[in-house]
Amino acid sequence: MFVKSQSFLYSVSKLFHQHQQWRGMGAMTKVRLKWVKNKNLDHVIDTETDLKAACILKDAIKRSPTGFLTAKSVADWQKLLGLTVPVLRFLRRYPTLFHEFPHARYASLPCFKLTDTALMLDSQEQIIHQSHEADTVERLCRVLMMMRTQTVSLRSLHSLKFDLGLPDNYEKTLVMKYPDHFCFVKASNGNPCLKLVQWRDEFAFSALQKRNESNVVTGEDCLYREFKRGQSTLTFPMSFPRGYGAQKKVKAWMDEFQKLPYISPYDDPSNIDPESDLMEKRAVGVLHELLSLTIHKKTKRNYLRSMRAELNIPHKFTRLFTRYPGIFYLSLKCKTTTVILKEGYRRGKLVDPHPLTRLRDKFYHVMRCGFVYRARGLGMVSQEELLLDKPEDDDHEEEGSEEEEIVEGSELEEDSEDE
């Protein structure tokens, strides 16, 4: 837990006085960069698209009063699940999770229930949710604290449920347990929302600040001490696509960007010129923090767009992802646009995996086993083998940098909506 010290409060105040100095100054020299394809991070999107769909179906079957779903009831879910194949084909692809049987009254109607293996994995997931509940509550508080009114619509929050690692029925199992943290309200348009009951100073530290604070504790970083005294700025970790970092124009641009004062996403930005470079850096910090709060360090662009006004970020915020390829990666896989925090991954793997992501890796391994052995029959794969075998690494890489390539002529539409 982090508590604001007097020196830190002083440095924040000092930074706000410096805002006026940055107003009216010459804008940074910006370089238009081509989109760079990262095969390793694209593979993450490929695998986790099916994983998320399977998890959603698993939870839907659990919620069903009958304990199963019919093929007819999920026929229209393909777009909702983000799948490129019909839902029935998807369910049949993974027999280690979903057991197919005929309906009691309509023999030609396929039905699906969870296998014993899927139920066992689900029970492990519930244990993780219970043991890490405090962490989940803090993460949800931080999301609300970044909002202009400390409120977010339940529709937007529901979209982020998987990415934030929230329990399936979080409205009842989590929110209602903490009335001193959260409450339900209605927006002016009548939409239900979740609101933060009380601001919590102990949570008002960004991931970037916490990371530097940890380095100070271990004696690894003296720059953060200078930052707290208002003598320096915090810099974002950057990992440039091959060849970009050596370009003089890009290096000069990033040096200018890093020298701008760091504004915490939990600070009030009302005194900052909305057209200034400082406001752009603040928007980068907000997106960096929100992605840091997701357990997979990624989310869909459209999920961010639904909260754009509350986050106080530009309408055309997609340009920030392409403008700062050392911080973000924008993937176009699976007919959608996903933004990834690059520092969260190394060679296609999470640097600091959450216990829930480890369980989801196991879940995906069970899915793959079913896909591989489905033609030979489930009898060839025991439950012990499914749960104890280590997930195979489809995308093992040689030691070195991320595999990236510049795609000539590729330009991203900044204002287009995902399908």
The amount of helix comes to: 40-55%
Q: Strand percentage, roughly?
A: 5-15%
**Number of extended strands:** 13
The chain-level structural class is alpha+beta
With helices defined by DSSP (H or I, 4 residues minimum), what is the helix count? 18
The major β-sheet equals: 3 strands, antiparallel
Average pLDDT works out at 82
Biggest β-sheet: strands ordered side by side in the sheet = 2-4-3
Gyration radius, in Å: 23 Å
What general form does the structure show? globular
Low-confidence stretches: 1-26, 216-220, 227-231, 392-401, 415-419
Straight-line N-to-C gap: 41 Å
Multimer state: single chain
Protein name: Protein WHAT'S THIS FACTOR 9
Domain PORR: 36-370
Region (Disordered): 388-419
Pfam family, one: PORR
Description:
By secondary structure, this protein is an alpha+beta fold. It contains 18 helices and 13 strands. A three-stranded antiparallel β-sheet has the order 2-4-3. A three-stranded antiparallel β-sheet has the order 5-7-6. It has a three-stranded antiparallel β-sheet with strand order 8-10-9. Residues 391-419 have a biased composition (Acidic residues). It comes from Cardamine amara subsp. amara. Residues 36-370 form the PORR domain.
